[in-house]
């Protein structure tokens, strides 16, 4: 069973049931929410009720005097432990607790600790704060010129290679302005037969993982252990050590399973606060957010996208100008990377010689925005694929045919100057059209029920440069353990990585043990985000397994055994040590090549290690009396290289598309002067069973990634790209109205239908 042999095949490409399935369905899986330790104090947070203001005073006396309260802390008390108590992946702009100012409703201002969480919650209600209210700005475009300045001082973090250039613009709300210039856009527009210009908007939404954010910190002797629901344990360790002025080996970060993340649990969220509280009290401290509190912690960027295209009479896009404004909220989080990394894909997956892009990360007085499944790409695809359909319809060209004329093909340069390699853009488009039966007759409906269909295609560059390290330990009995800091939050990464080890060592996947992230045990990984794990960690795991395999071969040779035979590890170890003893440790480290964009133009010959491609086709029914839209068919097609586990890939495609369906049709954070008025699952609607399309068709388009592990690359976000524009395009096809702002609620559809009836030429 445990024979070491050259790649025997069969494990990669097999639909292996998820390794943790039994633990989860039997309730035995470990989550931080279930963790209790002796002497535990529960933290509850007092939060700002205004969007922008200077803190005049905070009265904690009544809270401190409540029986059962252990302690109450404010930002000034934190400053006695940490001189500069600010954190963040792009800018060190976020205080552990508010200092001097509050910048959004819901910002943590003070915290109560008690052994009983209910007493802590009661005490929070006794805290009062007095503010000098300041002018606030909430809209991303207004933030460009607003006199309401969210941050007086900007502290670039300088942590990541791709963000080391960050400085921000002093006395403005601009955290990052990214430009890309290729060709001569002005000349393209001057020579164009047609010019099209549109503006699109997306709303602020929430991740709503069913496991809310939670962290627990345990102080030790000149050390600290943090148990946390995090997608980035290595970053948490580095950032907490920096914050405290400690060595990394004084901070230990342990992550069990996550009950969903979707980008919400990246970088530092609660860890800095519980770390400081644990050190100040010398007691373990746990902070568990409610669902409502998550709405004030991290969200998805609202955006405004202005797009203008020069088009020839034969339907070729010759020039494109894009302006994207990202509403980053009060703290930058990773918004500058969204602005830059997603911003350069704003022209879409099309072969356009002349491109101008301006992408802005903006501070406002809304709750902070950061990574959310798709990392800005769904906002961009919503705009450029709606824009693409409008052009095609105006020119009288079939929308699929128009895309084919302009699609970016293998070897051609994307707007950045990076050649498109191993990316099946046209294959994905063709697969969507095929599964939609696009060239066949289509029932348009009758009476008040009208039917339409639409397609959309999008792409995403992977984050680079980032590093992943893996360790594979082969024991004396031939069993194998994989050590890595990739976090399995439901995407099946443990299983996929075990398949890579099994394929390389000639074992069964089910016999590989995967150790959960523990920074004292598992090696560095940048983070579980942006669909990078399959490619980056997958390559590191493969290298580690190959290193272990090669050592076993060397051991056989050192024992004088004939080459070409397969020897079980336990035979080799027994021959070497005379008993069942010893280990072989394989180590793999992977970082892809990368070329920084040129200053001024933003051009780069190698801006990403791989491209993710996703296409969507939908059929909808629109009730013209109510504006209600029902998606009856949803086709997802994605190029993910070679699938490591086809069954898991299919669930990833369904999950991504259905999540984006919610953002498209009804999810929206309702804000009143910065206050979220629907911050609960009772009022903030996410998709339910009755919102599911009756037909969901997932299609894997294999376009082998030559640089990926066994030809694979990421897929977790690909199905999110095209959902919103495909539905808007289908609504337009059904009833002739174009919506340019999300969500596509029945009210919005009905208003558009009635407006078109009053002004038929505009409809």
What does it look like?
This protein is of the alpha+beta class and 763 residues long. It has 3 domains: 32-134 and 213-288, Alpha-Beta Complex (Aldehyde Oxidoreductase, domain 3); 299-463 and 598-758, Aldehyde oxidase/xanthine dehydrogenase, molybdopterin binding domain (Aldehyde Oxidoreductase, domain 4), CATH 3.30.365; 466-590, Aldehyde Oxidoreductase, domain 4, CATH 3.30.365. Helices cover 26% and strands 24% of the residues. It contains 18 helices and 30 strands. It has a 7-stranded mixed sheet with strand order 3-7-1-14-11-12-13, sandwiched between helices. Strand 28 and strand 29 form a beta hairpin. The model is unreliable at 1-8 (pLDDT under 50).
Brief rundown of the structure:
With 763 residues, the chain is an alpha+beta fold.
Task: Draw up the topology in text.
Blueprint: H1 21-25, E1 41-47, E2 53-59, H2 61-65, E3 69-74, H3 75-81, E4 86-87, E5 94-95, E6 101-102, E7 108-114, H4 117-124, E8 128-133, E9 174-182, H5 185-191, E10 194-202, E11 214-220, E12 223-228, H6 233-244, E13 251-254, H7 271-281, E14 285-288, H8 291-294, E15 299-300, E16 302-311, E17 317-327, H9 335-342, E18 354-362, E19 369-370, H10 377-395, H11 399-406, H12 425-435, E20 445-446, E21 449-461, E22 468-475, E23 480-483, H13 493-505, E24 512-515, H14 533-558, H15 569-577, E25 583-590, E26 611-623, E27 629-639, H16 646-665, E28 671-672, E29 675-676, E30 695-701, H17 723-735, H18 746-758
Parallel strand pairs: 1-14, 12-13, 15-19, 17-18, 23-24, 27-30
Antiparallel strand pairs: 1-7, 2-6, 2-8, 3-7, 4-5, 9-18, 10-16, 11-12, 11-14, 16-17, 20-21, 21-26, 22-23, 22-25, 26-27, 28-29
Helix pairs in contact: 10-17, 13-14
């Amino acid at each position: 069973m445990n024979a070491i042999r050259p790649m025997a095949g069969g494990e990669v490409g097999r639909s292996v049931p998820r390794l943790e399935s039994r633990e989860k369905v039997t309730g035995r899986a470990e989550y931080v929410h279930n963790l209790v330790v002796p002497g535990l104090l529960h933290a509850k947070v007092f939060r700002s009720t205004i969007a922008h203001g200077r803190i005049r005073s905070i009265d904690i006396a009544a809270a401190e005097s409540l029986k059962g309260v252990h302690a109450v802390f404010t930002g000034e008390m934190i400053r006695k432990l940490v001189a500069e108590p600010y954190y963040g992946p792009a800018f060190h702009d976020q205080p552990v607790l508010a200092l001097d100012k509050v910048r959004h409703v819901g910002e943590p201002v003070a915290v109560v600790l008690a052994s009983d969480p209910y007493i802590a919650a009661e005490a929070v209600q006794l805290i009062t704060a007095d503010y000098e209210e300041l002018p606030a700005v909430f809209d991303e475009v207004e933030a460009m010129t607003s006199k309401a300045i969210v941050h007086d001082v900007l502290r670039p973090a300088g942590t990541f290679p791709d963000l080391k250039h960050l400085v921000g613009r002093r006395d403005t709300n601009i955290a990052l302005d990214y430009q890309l210039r290729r060709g001569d856009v002005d000349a393209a527009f001057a020579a164009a037969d047609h010019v099209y210009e549109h503006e699109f908007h997306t709303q602020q939404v929430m991740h709503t993982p069913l496991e809310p954010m939670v962290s627990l910190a345990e102080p030790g002797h000149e050390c600290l252990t943090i148990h946390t629901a995090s997608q980035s344990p290595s970053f948490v360790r580095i950032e907490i050590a920096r914050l405290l002025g400690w060595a990394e080996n004084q901070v230990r970060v342990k992550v069990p399973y996550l009950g969903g993340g979707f980008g919400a649990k990246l970088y530092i969220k609660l860890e800095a606060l519980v770390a400081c509280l644990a050190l100040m009290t010398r007691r373990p401290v746990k902070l568990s957010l409610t669902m409502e509190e998550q709405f004030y912690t991290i969200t998805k960027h609202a955006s405004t996208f202005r797009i203008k295209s020069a088009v020839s009479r034969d339907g070729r896009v010759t020039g494109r100008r894009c302006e994207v404004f990202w509403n980053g909220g009060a703290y930058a989080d990773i918004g500058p990377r969204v602005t830059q990394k997603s911003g350069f894909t704003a022209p879409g997956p099309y072969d356009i010689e002349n491109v101008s892009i301006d992408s802005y990360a903006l501070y406002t007085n809304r709750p902070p925005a950061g990574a959310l499944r798709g990392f800005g790409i769904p906002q961009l695809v919503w705009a450029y694929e709606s824009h693409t359909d409008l052009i095609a319809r105006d020119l009288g060209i079939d929308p699929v045919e128009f895309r084919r004329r302009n699609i970016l093909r293998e070897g051609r340069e994307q707007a950045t100057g990076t050649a498109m390699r191993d990316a099946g853009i046209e294959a994905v488009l063709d697969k969507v059209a095929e599964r939609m039966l696009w060239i066949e007759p289509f029932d348009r409906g009758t009476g008040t029920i009208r039917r339409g269909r639409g397609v959309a295609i999008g792409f995403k560059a992977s984050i680079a440069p980032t590093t992943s390290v893996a360790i594979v330990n082969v024991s004396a009995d031939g069993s194998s353990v994989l050590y890595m800091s990739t976090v399995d939050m439901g995407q099946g990464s443990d299983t996929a990585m075990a398949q890579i080890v099994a394929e390389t060592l000639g074992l069964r996947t089910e016999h590989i043990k995967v150790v959960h992230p523990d920074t004292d045990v598992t090696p560095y990984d940048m983070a579980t985000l942006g669909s990078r794990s399959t490619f980056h960690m997958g390559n590191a795991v493969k290298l580690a397994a190959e290193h272990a395999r090669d050592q076993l071969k060397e051991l056989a040779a050192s024992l004088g055994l004939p080459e070409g035979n397969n020897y079980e590890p336990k035979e080799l170890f027994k021959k070497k040590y005379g008993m069942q003893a010893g280990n072989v440790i394989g180590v793999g480290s992977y970082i892809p090549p990368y070329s920084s964009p040129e200053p001024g133009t933003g051009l780069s010959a190698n801006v990403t290690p791989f491209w993710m491609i996703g296409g969507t086709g939908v059929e909808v029914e629109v009730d013209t009396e109510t504006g209600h839209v029902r998606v009856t068919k949803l086709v997802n097609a994605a190029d993910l290289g070679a699938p490591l586990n086809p069954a898991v890939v299919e669930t990833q495609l369904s999950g991504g598309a259905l999540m984006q369906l919610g953002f498209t049709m009804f999810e929206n954070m309702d804000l009143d002067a910065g206050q979220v008025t629907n911050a609960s699952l009772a009022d903030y609607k996410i998709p339910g069973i009755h919102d599911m399309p009756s037909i969901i068709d997932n299609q894997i388009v294999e376009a082998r990634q030559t640089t990926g592990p066994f030809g694979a690359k990421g897929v977790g976000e690909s199905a999110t790209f095209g959902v919103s524009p495909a539905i808007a395009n289908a609504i337009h096809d059904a009833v002739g109205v174009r919506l340019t702002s999300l969500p596509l609620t029945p009210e919005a559809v009905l208003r558009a239908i009635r407006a078109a009836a009053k002004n038929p030429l505009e409809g």
